[in-house]
Structures are given as C-alpha cells and as structure tokens.
Design goal:
- By secondary structure, the chain is mostly helical.
- Helix content is about 65%, strand content about 0%.
- The chain has a single domain (about 20-135), classed as Globin-like (Orthogonal Bundle).
- It contains eight helices and no strands.
- The longest helix has 17 residues, at about 30-45.
Length: about 140
C-alpha cells in the first residue's frame, strides 16, 4: 500500500512540475473547426493559384487536408497528434522553390484573413511553421 501511495505521490509531483501547455494560439485559430476552415480555405486558394496548383495534382486532397489540420493543430498547441510523413519525405522529388513556398504562405494568410484570424495570431503560426521551409525546398 505504501508503494502505491508513493507511486501516486511521485506521479502527481511530476505532473505538477510540467509547465502547462500553451494553447492560446490554438484557441485564437478557432480550435479544430477553425483550423479545418483555414486549411480548406488555403486549399481552395491553391486550386485557383496558377503558380503552384500543379504541385497538388494527383494527390489525395482529403488526406492532405487531414494531415495539414493535424500539423497546424499540433504547431498551434492543440490536443492533436500529427500522423503524417516527415516534411522531407512528403516533399521528396517535388523540387519546390522559395517562390513556391512563398505562394503557399500567401494562400495560407489569405485563408486566415478570410476566417478573421488576427494578424498577431497569424504571425505566431507562421513563425512556428517557418522552420519547415528548409525541409521542403529543393527536395
């Protein structure tokens, strides 16, 4: 019994020492429904964007949408798990350029604008996604 109480006390102490997860960006994006609307808006924008639409031909758009929602949810501090491939693997052989990447970001920003996401929240999300740039360009 003492071991059980000790184990429980140690578990509670460990939980108490972990900093709370910051989900303020997740909330600012509208949680799961808001992120889904943002991703769907971005994909619709891309479908009309002659600069990059060719990169999205012959892909499973529903799977892409689902993985993008997961990824943005995780990056925003939400309660999601990303189950997709690594960025390097996902973009292998596509030979994306900085211009392609910038066009995608513009489409994401337009989708966030359309959903009424405040600019500071947009900037926080873009800052969290920015390190992925090097993982997708020229792969």
């Amino acid at each position: 019994m003492r071991m059980l109480v000790l184990a429980l006390a140690l578990s509670l102490a460990a939980c108490a020492q972990q900093p709370p997860k910051d989900d303020s960006l997740y909330l600012a994006l509208g949680e799961q429904p808001g992120i889904t609307r943002i991703v769907e808006g971005m994909l619709l924008n891309i479908a009309r964007d002659a600069r990059i639409v060719r990169h999205f031909e012959n892909i499973d758009i529903v799977r892409l949408r689902d993985k993008l929602v997961e990824q943005i949810c995780v990056e925003a501090g939400g309660p999601c798990t990303y189950t997709g491939d690594s960025m390097e693997e996902s973009h292998k052989g596509q030979h994306l350029t900085p211009s392609d990447f910038n066009a995608l970001v513009e489409n994401l920003q337009d989708a966030m604008d359309a959903q009424g996401v405040a600019v500071p929240a947009q900037n926080r999300l873009l800052a969290r996604l920015a390190p992925m740039r090097e993982q997708v360009i020229d792969r």
